[in-house]
Design goal:
It is a single chain. By secondary structure, the protein is mostly helical. It is 80% helix and 0% strand. The protein is built from 45 helices and no strands. The chain is elongated, with a radius of gyration of 35 Å. The termini are far apart.
């Protein structure tokens, strides 16, 4: 019993000892640091970040943890975070020369050359024989274009550390930049001689041979790079690019297929083939590859995200949504997945829902340009033009090279005839992506409208030159030719756009516009669209155009099935819904038209348009109570939707509704449709009912000026003048209303008013 008691006592003492150790912050932070280092050595960088961050929670002034965290962020490519951690390190440990030089190299990468030089000189002030500091000064001099100083400093670095292969590689790059190719090759060869196991040295030599088009030697160097580091994806990526440079995509694909097998446990390796297939436009093969990988690697979230992106490109929205929801189920705050969810909601015409989701993403990452861009698209879906422009401007401020955002902002500028913004967007894109056609197209349009046609046309041609397989240059130049009346050239350019993209709805629509401008028979374009459908049989937009042209020709029997086919291919095709309902109504079947609008609402309950159109049909059937319900539902979806507000206001005024509510709705409509004679008439009619006849007259004058042949506007103006006792003017406008349309809805009331004037 005594031995047992002693044992328990020892155990208790040991327990207390270990507990006290575990509570010692110095022990805890060191344990986290060592754990992070182990993860780092195994290339598990995200796990390493967590452990180094844990160490810093224990001691925010733990310089070693700050430095290790910086190194990990560099491996992850999170350079702003790495910069902050290095700054913190050197604040705590100014004598840490490695941290000072790492910080200098990051500053050099960001083109902050003076600050980078200060870091190098700070190290040299204490240790003039530091070779890395001289190497940093060499690279700074090279960035400034001072090649002699660069070579001199790199020579010092090599003299101080002659066995460093990396310094020889740097020397070779400096020689290559000054076109001293023999010296460059000698330096690169010396690097691989000093360190034959350095894949970086072999890759640099291979890049040199590729630039010289010495393909055989380049291939041999790349084989050595793979052998030097068989577990790294980088040499294999370089090998694939090497074959792509020679337009040997099949060989590139084989290299990446081999990489997938050799690096089956490395996500950066086994994803390479799928990413390559996506990048080279082999979307179906890429999807099959992603599907296979996703089945094998169920916990690989970045892989799932790429798969989702591929599914969206293929318009397989439901599958993409299901997979994206799996990602959000594991992490509801995943910003990338939230952005994708927002994109999907936009595709589904659920703009209000998309805004809620994307607002959450922006709150988490205010500097995420993509989130702001998709917020702009969602705002556009809800009709909020002001927010759309605001979000687009924020997106391009954060990322000037974001082509989609610049293009969308250019569309806004084009609509507002803001040529300065359009020109600026073009210039920004040209500087960021000189081989993209988008910037040249934007600048061209701006130049034409700023009376600079010579340079504008040159930009259109440049867009085609830099991207001959992209349809946009042909399309925009064709539109210019169309406005110039050069129809044959325009049509040729539109056809060239369709050759590059057989599914281009824009190019086909432009051909239709050209045909209509030339007053060609609809049958010609119907035949042309049918021919294109043979090449692109699943194009909903083409079926919509076909049905629209047939409807215009009063060929309702063919128009209806073609519009139904358009909806079968794309259940969110709003234009097809609207046209189909119109065709059905014109065919004498208002019930079918109403059913189509109801179906549209079922598919897209957040789209206000079907509610308004259904309300208009109910009004035609004199079901004004149901019509008002539809307009109210539209306003529940989008409270400031001007068309619904206008129609509801007018209906209330006509059927004894609350005039104060009607006036408020009419004011909403007028704000949203300031140039509309209809909104002017509705607001005037509300003022009339409130006894504000002078304000009614002013608005009705605007309506009549813009639409002088509208009998109702003339009638309302006549009544307003009658209330002001301006009998001659009242008579003039009442008579005008009856002359324009003796059977307009209020014709009998107009006649009574005229009889009153006679009396």
């Amino acid at each position: 019993m005594k031995r047992s008691a002693v044992g328990l006592l020892i155990a208790a003492i040991l327990c207390l000892f270990f507990v006290s150790c575990s509570r010692d912050p110095n022990v805890r932070k060191q344990k986290y640091l060592e754990s992070g280092k182990r993860y780092y050595e195994k290339a598990k960088y995200r796990e390493a970040v967590i452990q180094f961050a844990n160490a810093l929670q224990v001691d925010p002034r733990f310089a070693d943890a700050h430095y290790q965290l910086a190194q990990t962020y560099i491996k992850l490519g999170a350079y702003p975070s790495a910069y902050n951690e290095l700054l913190r390190t050197v604040d705590l440990q100014p004598e840490n020369e490695k941290a000072q030089l790492d910080l200098g190299n990051l500053l050099l990468a960001g083109r902050h050359l003076d600050e980078a030089e200060k870091r190098a000189q700070l190290v040299l002030a204490n240790h003039s024989d530091n070779p890395d500091a001289h190497a940093l000064l060499a690279n700074i001099a090279s960035a400034r274009g001072n090649n002699d100083a660069a070579l001199q400093e790199m020579g010092k670095a090599i003299e101080l550390s002659p066995q460093r292969a990396q310094f020889r590689t740097n020397l070779g790059v400096l020689y290559q930049n000054t076109k001293q190719f023999a010296e460059a090759e000698s330096a690169f060869k010396k690097a691989v001689e000093l360190d034959p196991k350095s894949s970086n040295a072999w890759l640099t030599l291979a890049a040199f041979y590729s630039a010289q088009q010495r393909w055989s030697e380049g291939e041999q160097a790349l084989e050595k790079a793979v052998q030097a580091d068989p577990s790294s994806p980088q040499p294999r990526i370089a090998f694939a690019r090497f074959y792509m440079m020679q337009k040997k995509n099949d060989r590139a694909e084989q290299v990446l297929d081999d990489a997938k097998k050799a690096l089956s446990d490395n996500p950066d390796g086994y994803r390479l083939l799928a990413d390559f297939l996506m990048a080279t436009g082999k979307l179906d093969k890429a999807l099959a590859e992603y599907a296979s990988l996703a089945e094998q690697h169920k916990d690989d979230v970045p892989l799932k995200k790429m798969y989702v992106s591929a599914l969206l490109q293929k318009n397989r929205v439901d599958e993409a949504n299901k997979l994206n929801e799996e990602i959000l189920k594991k992490n509801s705050k995943d910003v990338e997945a939230l952005i994708v969810k927002g994109r999907i909601l936009i595709v589904q015409r659920k703009g209000s829902d998309a805004i809620q989701v994307l607002d959450t993403a922006v709150k988490s990452e205010p500097d995420n340009a993509a989130a702001h861009y998709f917020l702009a698209l969602a705002a556009d879906e809800t009709g909020d033009a002001n927010r759309r422009e605001k979000e687009l401007r924020e997106a391009v401020r954060l990322r000037p090279d974001l082509v989609e955002a610049q293009s969308a902002l250019a569309t806004v500028a084009l609509r507002k005839r803001d040529w300065e913004t359009l020109n600026k967007s073009g210039e920004t894109l040209i500087n960021a992506q000189p081989n993209s056609p988008q910037g040249y197209v934007m600048r061209a349009i701006a130049r034409f409208n700023r009376k600079d046609p010579v340079n504008g046309e040159a930009d259109f041609k440049k867009a085609i030159e830099v991207a001959p397989q992209n349809p946009i240059g042909y399309l925009r130049l064709g539109e210019l030719r169309l406005t110039q009346g050069r129809f044959k050239e325009a049509d040729t350019l539109f056809e060239q756009a369709l050759e590059r993209d057989p599914n281009s709805a824009e190019a086909m629509q432009a051909l239709v516009a050209s045909s209509m401008t030339q007053k060609q028979p609809a049958a010609k374009m119907i035949a042309r669209i049918n021919a294109q459908l043979a090449k692109a049989p699943n194009n909903s937009a083409f079926y919509t155009m076909l049905g629209g042209l047939e409807a215009q020709s009063k060929d309702f029997a063919n128009a209806e099935p073609h519009l139904q086919k358009a909806l079968e291919l794309d259940k969110n095709n709003a234009l097809a819904f609207g046209l189909l309902a119109q065709v059905q109504f014109a065919s004498g079947s208002s019930e079918k038209a109403m059913a189509t609008y109801q179906n549209w609402i079922l598919q897209n309950p957040k789209d206000v348009r079907p509610y308004v159109m259904l309300g208009s049909l109910e009004e035609l059937k004199n079901n004004w109570q149901k019509a008002q319900q539809m307009y109210q539902k539209a306003l529940e979806v989008l409270p400031d939707y001007p068309v619904a507000a206008n129609n509801l206001a007018y209906s209330m005024l006509e059927h004894g509704g609350n005039t104060d509510v009607a006036l408020s709705l009419a004011q909403v409509a007028r704000r949203g449709m300031q140039d509309s004679p209809n909104s002017a008439d509705t607001l005037a009619w509300a003022y009339y009912h409130k006894g504000a006849y002078g304000m009614a007259v002013d608005l009705l004058h605007d309506a009549v000026k813009k639409s002088p042949d509208n009998a109702t506007y003339q009638y309302h103006l006549g009544l307003a003048y009658l209330k002001q006792n301006e009998r001659a003017r009242a008579k003039e406008h009442l008579q005008k209303a009856l002359q324009l349309n003796p059977k307009f809805p209020a014709a009998d009331d107009a006649r009574k008013a005229l009889d009153q004037l006679k009396g």
